[in-house]
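lol ok so funny story. i was supposed to be doing the assay writeup but got distracted and ended up predicting the structure for this chain instead. priorities right. anyway since i did it might as well share w the group, maybe its usefull for someone
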Amino acid sequence: QYLYFVEEGKTDEDNPHYELFEDFRINVSSMYPIIFLLRRYSIILVLITMPGLKYAQILSHFMSTMYVITHLWGSRPYESIFVNRQEIVNEHMVLLAAYPLYCFTPWVWDIQRRLEAGWVIVFIIVFNIIFNISLLCYQVLKLACLRAKYFYVRRQKIKDAKKKKQKAIKDALAAKKHSEFIASLFVNKDDPN
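and the output, tada:
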C-alpha cells in the first residue's frame, strides 16, 4: 500500500494509517550521534574480542565506515550544508586510510611495502588535518569579515545619525534666529514694553 502512495505522488499524511505510526517515526538525522558512538563501540569490541583476527577488524572498520558514509549522504544530519560536506569528506578520508591496513596483514611480507603503506596512511591523515584546519580558518575569516562589515555599517549609521541630528539642530537654530530677526523688525523700539 505504501508503494501505491509513492507512485501516486501522495504524501504520508494522505495515508489512512499515518496517524497510527506517527508517534513511532524517528528523525533519521537525530540518529547520527548514536550511530557515531555505536560505530566506535563496535570497533572497540572487535579489537578486544578478536585480537588475532586482523581481517575481521579491518572488515568491521570498512563496513562501519561505509555505513556512516551512506547515512551521511542519505540523511544529511547537520543543518549546514558546509558541515555535512566536511563530515562526508572526513569519512571518505577514514575509508581511504583503511585500505592500506591490509598491507599490515600476512598478505604483504615485504617490510618496504609495509613502510610505504604506513607513509600513505600518514599522508592521508596529514592531508585530512590540513583540510580541516583550512576549513576552520576559512570559517573564522568569514566570520571576522562579517563582523568587521557589521561594525563598519553600524559605525556609519551612527555617524549618519549624528550628522542628521546636528543638521536638524543647526536648522532649528537658524530657523529660531530667523524668526527672532523677523520678530525684532516688527517690535517697536520706542515702546518700553
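The helical segments are 2-8, 18-21, 32-49, 54-75, 81-98, 111-185. Residues 1-7 have pLDDT under 50 and may be disordered.
back to the writeup now i swear
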